[in-house]
């Protein structure tokens, strides 16, 4: 009953925001305006209004908006491009609240645990904020603190998004329907770590261990004695944020070398280790005085299992070598493309994706159009899109955007191509093929065990709703219906 009332309250709030910021009135002209340029302006206006509205709905809506901003094939390029400016920044919560959290977590006051603690935060987002402090040993640290009651707010958001999306899809053309399970799985996977700072600390330690032999990468140390579920204390990193180009040049740092290092670091994490930083943005990448790249804020990381990791490595290597036949074979052999689809047409589609990328500078291609093309082809061939691959695409978009900002005339993947080629020859050879065969054998055995287990297990009974709850659900459905008509119109006309 309480959850139903929360849904009603949320829907009323959403309708109020749509009216207050003029979203409803921006949609009306789309019913009558047919001229492409004017429709593009209207859609851009809708995207800008969504950038204002989504942060007011809750933390999960900000994350959802950031994911959907890379999906021009769903929202339309104009709306998606406008939403790229969606920032996860909120006002800081008071130092008195911070003190209460410390008392609750450690049973001690801040002054008992630190030599000094800055009252003003250096960064504040929807999930947490960060303060600079000095430990009792005189070491500068970054202290990250979760917002009060953020876990509950995030999970409430996810439940609303799931219910809401099912209704919106009723009013959208089949080809434009949102595969909400993809986005929800992405949000759920990221929230598991983001909402428990002990896990974020563990993720940082895992990447640090994976990359301990890698040059040019620095992962901050975690101070576990000053860390809990709601507080994470890590090494303070001095340096220049990667988005401050003029300062990097002023420090005599080689921008092209930074781009190459960034590409190699990403490739190592994603294709070699299968565990990568999935919340890359300029605020999370700091260039140290010696030119090393430091990564911070591991609230969103992505794990690629053996199959996905090797799939990504083979596909990247295939595109770099323009081996489109190999790329096609990988997609069909792994089952990413279902049987019955045309292998010949899929290979042509791969060529249409690869040729604009390989050998060209980032200045000559539009990343939003490229991603739209990728996802459109995925839909046309019923390609399975794993939630992890959505995070991978989002990360690649950000990394390439950073490379473009530092030097628009350099293609970072071509710059790192010799290293990637060398790695692939060593790791995609005969030994790798034997490991892959062994993995496939184990997977086959596990599937047989799963079938046997399922054959001897029963199913539970479904719960029945009370008559009163049924009436409340009718009210919720009515509110969803009204809002679904609005958003359904946006998606169908994009």
Automatic annotation (TrEMBL):
Keyword Transmembrane in record: yes
Keyword hit for Signal: no
Residues of the Protein kinase domain: 95-494
InterPro entries in alphabetical order: ABC1_dom (IPR004147), Kinase-like_dom_sf (IPR011009), Prot_kinase_dom (IPR000719), UbiB_kinase (IPR050154)
Membrane-spanning ranges: 7-32, 471-491
Keywords: Membrane, Transmembrane, Transmembrane helix
Origin: domain of life: Bacteria
SUPFAM superfamilies referenced in this protein's UniProt entry, alphabetically: Protein kinase-like (PK-like)
Gene3D superfamilies: Transferase(Phosphotransferase) domain 1
The family this protein is said to belong to: Belongs to the protein kinase superfamily. ADCK protein kinase family.
UniProt name for this protein: 2-polyprenylphenol 6-hydroxylase UbiB
Organism per entry: Candidatus Bandiella euplotis
